[in-house]
């Protein structure tokens, strides 16, 4: 996809793993962002977390050093998205919550404003069926971390309009990302394929066939997977992974998406991966 970047002003909903990463990408490319979250603590720690991620991304050469950073504003209410040229929703992977939040977004933005969901697994049309002007709603599945991974999945629902697709092209041009447009459906392409593999990797460990380290070493060394499925689970966040697996299982009836008991135990024990300091592996203080 290509497009004219134009003047962008983003509202990003959710200051968690993905919302913060998307905001870092935008700000590092000089695009101003208003970051919205209902969790005050998440919001108050966001500027320091963002600065750290931005420095890291610039050190790695993933974001330019010679671009003036975009302005960051924080807000607790979606009403702060009123002047945005595009709204990116990156909140918890719960379909009812996302539908409610998308209704709120549609009620505050100017007509024709691009509305994006960063869902990993919920069909775009399921959300589009519950909001006004569904033609302005598109899925953009940013990968984690968004400032490092240059390719992303653009999900065009059956009701998504041409104007929204043109706005997506402009947004991705401003963010320096390459979008690959795919059809709608549970998990689209990437989560449908990846989440099943991660779930199976957890089941292999649960059955005692191989250790966590050996599963990852085999998938990395033999099959060229860059981080191994279980280290990837830690990067995604095991809580989010389980939410996505539940969406996939409920909507497809395919038992290979039924969350592994090992994943469920990790969520219950608070071992959600990198974001909590422990998942399949241990991490230092973030
Ligand atoms: N983690 C990944 O690797 C990854 C990758 C691609 C897409 N996604 C998707 O991105 C979305 C966010 O995932 P995450 O991993 O960042 O989750 P997360 O749990 O780290 O963050 C979710 C944030 O949403 C906030 N939130 C909840 N309700 C809200 C509301 N009504 N208004 C504003 N904020 C609200 C929470 O307080 C939290 O800060 C999910 O849909 C997920 O499936 C995740």
What does it look like?
With 286 residues, this protein is α/β, with parallel strands linked by helices. It has 2 domains: 173 residues, 3-Layer(aba) Sandwich (Rossmann fold), CATH 3.40.50; 86 residues, N-(1-d-carboxylethyl)-l-norvaline Dehydrogenase, domain 2 (Orthogonal Bundle), CATH 1.10.1040.10. Helix content is 43%, strand content 12%. It is built from 10 helices and 8 strands. Strands 3-2-1-4-5-6-7-8 form an 8-stranded mixed β-sheet, with helices on both faces. The chain is globular. The mean pLDDT is 96. The site of nicotinamide-adenine-dinucleotide has 28 residues, from helix 1, helix 3 and helix 9.
Quick synopsis:
The chain has 286 residues and is of the alpha/beta class.
Helix proportion: 40-55%
CATH superfamily of the largest domain: NAD(P)-binding Rossmann-like Domain
Largest sheet, order of strands side by side?
A: 3-2-1-4-5-6-7-8
Main sheet makeup: 8 strands, mixed
Q: Number of folding domains?
A: 2
- Sequence of secondary-structure elements: EHEHEEHEHEEHEHHHHH
Terminus-to-terminus distance = 35 Å
Which regions have little confidence, pLDDT < 50, spanning 5+ residues?
none
Overall shape: globular
Number of strands: 8
**Named CATH architecture of the largest domain:** 3-Layer(aba) Sandwich
Task: Please state the oligomeric state of the protein chains shown.
Answer: single chain
């Amino acid at each position: 996809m290509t497009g004219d970047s134009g003047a962008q002003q983003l509202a990003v909903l959710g200051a968690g793993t993905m919302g913060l990463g998307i905001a870092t990408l935008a700000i590092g490319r000089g695009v101003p962002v208003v970051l919205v979250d209902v969790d005050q603590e998440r919001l108050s720690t966001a500027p320091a977390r963002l600065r750290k991620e931005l420095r890291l991304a610039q050190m790695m050469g993933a974001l330019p050093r010679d671009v003036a950073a975009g302005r960051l504003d924080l807000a607790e209410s979606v009403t702060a998205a009123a002047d945005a040229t595009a709204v990116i929703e990156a909140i918890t992977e719960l379909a009812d919550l996302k539908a409610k939040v998308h209704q709120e977004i549609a009620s505050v933005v100017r007509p024709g404003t691009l509305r994006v969901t960063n869902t990993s697994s919920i069909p775009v049309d399921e959300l589009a069926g519950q909001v006004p002007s569904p033609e302005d709603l598109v899925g953009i599945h940013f990968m984690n971390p968004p400032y490092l991974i240059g390719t992303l999945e653009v999900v065009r629902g059956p009701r998504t309009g041409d104007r929204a697709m043109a706005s997506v092209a402009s947004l991705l041009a401003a963010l320096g990302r390459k979008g690959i447009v795919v059809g709608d459906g549970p998990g689209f392409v990437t989560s449908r394929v990846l989440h099943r593999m991660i779930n199976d990797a957890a089941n292999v460990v649960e059955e005692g066939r191989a250790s966590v380290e050996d599963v990852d070493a085999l998938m990395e060394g033999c099959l060229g997977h860059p981080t191994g499925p279980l280290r990837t689970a830690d990067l995604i966040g095991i809580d989010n992974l389980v939410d996505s697996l539940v969406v996939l299982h409920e909507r497809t009836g395919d038992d290979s998406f039924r969350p592994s008991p090992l994943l469920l135990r990790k969520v219950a024990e608070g071992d959600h991966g990198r974001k909590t300091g422990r998942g399949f592996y241990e991490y230092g203080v973030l």
